[in-house]
Structures are given as structure tokens and as C-alpha cells.
Amino acid sequence: KLVEASKRLAAFQAVKEHLDPSYTRVGIGSGSTVVYVVDAIAALGPGVTAGMSFYPTGAQSEELIEAAGLRLQYISKLPAGTQLDVAFDGADEVDDDLNLIKGGGACLWQEKIVAASAKKFVCVADFRKLSPRLGTSWKKGIPIEVLPMAAPRVLDELKRMGSHNPRVRPGLPGKAGAIVTDNGMWIIDAPFTPLHLPKDSAESGIRAGNEDNGVWTVDALADRLIKIPGVAEIGLFYGSNGLQVASGAQKPVAAYF
Ligand code: DER
Known about the structure:
The protein is of the alpha/beta class.
């Protein structure tokens, strides 16, 4: 109950503060918190939303937009050189520097593309998601979208990098085999020891861009994961300290709890 109330409060607060009526292009993420974001936007009424187009990050997001009677548009139709005014999305974990683990809903690839296409990215999350360092509360691992035929090779490399028991995300009951994303890919969840921020090096001794015996700084891990052959995208987002773990992405404006 408390969690749902917190998600709703965060969503309505985020829309109130970050959806300007003058906006015309709005990105909509995936997951359960973003459901409340769409509720908050729909509650503004057609007087505000009629002039806006909403850009989904996958099948669930598309359904949310349509069910709310909002105008659906696609990133593939975004005119060259233009950006979304704002994108709202959830997260699985948020650290002190607004770095995010995303992908718990297996929608991370399109989520990152939409987020990176926005002038402003607003992460909406309840109190459970905030933790000092990524990997502290979200123990399932960093979600990584991979080409199925490369999955065994990616798992090998992740183990070499110190991931503890990385595995292909199994399908839900009623679906034999692995989860298949909206893009026809698989998700590997790769647990790592909680990540350090580059600024932690004084106490942890692990300087920015490095790892020490399987303990990584966020930037170093993001740079390495994205280069593994077969990896399409990784569920590590952003950094307010100039750490762009999502290349070219806008830094998050705020995370609401
Ligand atoms: O897949 C994602 O990154 C989603 O944003 C997600 O994990 C957040 O989900 P929740 O809002 O249902 O917690």
C-alpha cells in the first residue's frame, strides 16, 4: 500500500514539476511507476494534453499511452535535429549521483534511446529504489540486452569480469525458455559487487575508470559492458556528476521518492 502510494505521489509530483503545458513531445517509459505518470498526465485533461505527442519505450508503454487516450507518436518519426521536451521513466535502483539501474522490466534498450532523445529525463521512483551505490538494494544484477546467439559468450565474459552468477532471464510461468524483449532479444542479469562512484576513490582506492578484483566504478563497468560483442544495450543510466554512462544522454533532472 505504502509503496503504491509513494509511486503515485512521486509520479504526480514529477508531472506537476516537469511537464510544462507548452511541451509538445513527451517520452513515456515502462514499468509500474510510469503507470501513475500517465495517470497524472491524463488527469491534466485534453486542454493540456491535446497539443502533445507521447513516445513509447515498448509494448506496455504504447498500451498505456493509447489506453489513456493520449496521442501516440514514435521516435522513428522524430524530425532530424529535434528532441523530446521531456521523458519520464522508472528505475530499479538510483544512487547518490542519480546513476540508475534499469531493465527490471526488460525494456531498457528503447528506454535508453527515448531518454537520450529528450532534453530532460525525469526518473520517477519510490523510496525503495534509493541506495548509496548501485547493487546495494537491487541484487538481481545489471540487466543487459543481448543477441540470443551470443548469450553464452557474454556470460563467459561477465564471469571473467567478476560478475557473480550472471544468467539469462528465464521466461515467466507459461513461457518456456528465456524472456524475449520487444526487440526479439534476451536479457542477461549480471550481479556485481556494489559499484563505486569515481569520487569514491579516496576511500575505496578504486580510481575512476577502474576495477579492483571484480569491484568496479560505474563508469568503468559501463564502458566495458557495452563493448562485449553481442551486447545491444546495458541497464546502467546517467550520472549527475558528468558521468555519462549513457553516451550522449541527458543527465537526469531528479528522482522522486
Ligand atoms: O525496466 C525498467 O527500467 C523500468 O523502468 C523498471 O524497472 C521500473 O519498474 P517499476 O516502476 O515497476 O519499479
